[in-house]
Amino acid sequence: MLFRRLSRLGFRIAKELPKERHFSVCGRRILQRSYGQYLHSSAVTQTQTRTFRQALFSNNHNLCTSFSTSSGTSSEETKKINVIFVDKDGEEIHIKVPIGMNILEAAHENDIELEGACECSLACSTCHVIVMDTEYYNKLEEPTDEENDMLDLAFALTETSRLGCQVIAKPEIDGIRLAIPSATRNFAVDGFVPKPH
Amino acid sequence: MTSKAVFSTIRRSLTKPRGGAVSRGHHLSTSAATASESYASDEHAILMKGVRISGRPLYLDMQSTTPLDPRVFDAMNASSIYDYGNPHSRTHLYGWEAENAVEVARIQVAKLIGASSKEIVFLSGATEANNTVVKGVMHFYKDKKRHVITTQTEHKCVLDSCRHLQQEGFEVTYLPVKTDGLVDLEMLRESIRPDTGLVSVMAVNNEIGVVQPMEEIGRICKEHKIPFHTDAAQAIGKIPVDVEKWNVSFMSMSGHKIYGPKGVGAMYVRRRPRVRLEPLMNGGGQERGLRSGTLATQQVVGFGVACELAMKEMEYDEKWIKRLQERLLNGVREKLDGVVVNGSLESRYAGNLNLSFAYVEGESLLMGLKEVAVSSGSACTSASLEPSYVLRALGVDEDMAHTSIRFGIGRFTTEEEIDKAVELTVKQVEKLREMSPLYEMVKDGIDIKNIQWSQH
């Protein structure tokens, strides 16, 4: 009985092993390091391990503890969509976001100045982004009451505002343009930008 | 020299122990002057602004404000002394206790209107709530929505906010009302445009007391997906209010109209479907970011208790007030003719009775009714010289608009007060009509409208 259960568990682990994973920072470091050797050295995995190592050595855990699994097997490239960030000076930054990743994480990976103070726990409004086209805004899912409550507190709120940590990349929003507001609710009127930017 | 004498008389009369008619304990049921002839000899008379009255007037002006219910005062008193912590302090017991008191009040207010407590925002009164909603909604949606619909009989704070928006470039439609004071629903439907951002119609009018067809208006707004705002300052605690039935997105409420304290009010802002506002008060993000600033705990607690009491006693109050209203109206109509009730008699809140007496001048009527505290028009227009714009919107002639008197009946009004008010009003109107040449002409059968008055 026990053996059967163990073997089933072992089977599942063996199945999941080759897939790419985005593990939480605390607790799985050792595993991730060993997987890094097994995984194919595709561009995606390199950025993943790179940012993981960055997080390891920096004190700010700006990686959100979210799971994003790819839909295919490890041999396929993760499907990505194009996302364009427009910062407060009007400069455009084009990035590619794998499907299933939330926008805040994607921004952090690409060193975009989007603060995520509560690390995707829906407790702040600092990852506030403005969807520049209404049709893309309509393609996103309706925000939950909790997200709306936090959005109420955001600085420079508009009709098409969303919290970046709640926008999950999907094929329908390929090419979405997101504007970053000029400030957050944190009072950095002296121009102070919190680390790790 | 003379002012000194006046002040010393006032001081003497105020500090003297009062006998008979007026005593501190009977503040609420104010007793009227006993005999009108004995003013000069009465030692206990009050001398105020050159007028001598022998007792405190009857208070029949419930629409301008209401006396504080003693039970509300008890709650506020305790809260003032004990809940002195800042309700937004998260780190210590004082803050937690004060926050708890505020949250209890929030639930009490929400229950009265059928909302969730998360949708209530406390502020300084219905005026602030009206300003925040009208300006805040339009400023938030200013890129897409440029049009506001309201009525001509709204409270001055709504109309002034709309005029301010007009100065900023928005367009406002002021809907006319029918002669009974109610909004014409077809006209409302026709004035809706694709860029209409807000419809604002007050639930119970403060001057004439008519109750608008809220459910129908709410249905129209829902069809066209336009946020519906209502100034319910005169409505809550008096008529059944339900934000779901009325499909209201914003509601303004006032504390001092329901036997609560002055200086506090609340705003209902719907959460589902979410409507957004640009706040008037920026700051630390208190009250959902819509009204920053420390809450006055004891005011909020008083407002909450007033709402709870109003919910419990609404039915009883309604019966009592309806009875008194009928007594007043029938009493006046028995003795006088030419008495017109302004506004619909059916769709009306019983505690507000606005009467016009034909062929009588309004100011002189008010002067003669020194022992009855009533208002002509509304408190907000009494400082200015214009006749009431609400009565003008009803299509009332100017001469009738000038003679209108608004009687406000409330929870603490007594039958004796009503009887005395009837007696004083009838006497004064008869006296003025005796002197009135217009009345004489009407009695002789001359049609006043055909008279050619000479140009001044």
UniProtKB/TrEMBL annotation, chain A:
**Does the record's keyword annotation contain Transport?**
no
Q: Tell me which stretches of the chain form a coiled coil.
A: none
Name any cofactors this protein relies on: [2Fe-2S] cluster
Gene Ontology molecular-function annotations: 2 iron, 2 sulfur cluster binding; electron transfer activity; metal ion binding
Q: Which InterPro entries match?
A: 2Fe-2S_ferredoxin-like_sf, 2Fe-2S_ferredoxin-type, Adrenodoxin-like, Adrenodoxin_Fe-S_BS, Beta-grasp_dom_sf
Q: Does the keyword Iron apply?
A: yes
Q: Where is the 2Fe-2S ferredoxin-type domain?
A: 81-184
**What GO CC annotations are associated with the protein?**
mitochondrion
Please list the GO biological process terms of this entry: P450-containing electron transport chain
Against Pfam families, the record matches this protein to: Fer2 (PF00111)
Q: Which UniProt keywords apply?
A: 2Fe-2S, Iron, Iron-sulfur, Metal-binding
Q: Which PROSITE patterns match?
A: 2FE2S_FER_2, ADX
Which CDD domains does the record cross-reference, listed alphabetically? Answer: fer2 (cd00207)
Q: Which PANTHER family match?
A: ADRENODOXIN-LIKE PROTEIN 1, MITOCHONDRIAL-RELATED, FERREDOXIN/ADRENODOXIN
Q: What is this protein called?
A: 2Fe-2S ferredoxin-type domain-containing protein
Q: Organism source for this protein?
A: Brassica oleracea var. oleracea
From TrEMBL, chain B:
Domain of life assignment: Eukaryota
Cofactor(s) this protein cannot do without: pyridoxal 5'-phosphate
A single GO cellular-component term on record: mitochondrion
Database matches in HAMAP family: Cys_desulf_IscS
Q: Which GO terms describe its biological process?
A: [2Fe-2S] cluster assembly
Q: Where is this region: Disordered?
A: 16-36
UniProt keyword annotations, A-Z: Iron, Iron-sulfur, Metal-binding, Pyridoxal phosphate, Transferase
Q: Where is the Aminotransferase class V domain?
A: 59-420
Instruction: List its EC numbers.
Output: 2.8.1.7
Q: InterPro entries, from UniProt?
A: Aminotrans_V_dom, Cys_deSase_IscS, Cysteine_dSase, PyrdxlP-dep_Trfase, PyrdxlP-dep_Trfase_major, PyrdxlP-dep_Trfase_small
Note whether NAD occurs among the keywords. Answer: no
User: Pfam families recorded for this chain?
Assistant: Aminotran_5 (PF00266)
Q: Which family does it belong to?
A: Belongs to the class-V pyridoxal-phosphate-dependent aminotransferase family. NifS/IscS subfamily.
Q: Name one GO molecular function term.
A: iron-sulfur cluster binding
Please give the name of this protein: cysteine desulfurase
The UniProt entry, under NCBIfam families, shows:
IscS, PRK14012.1
Top EC category: transferase
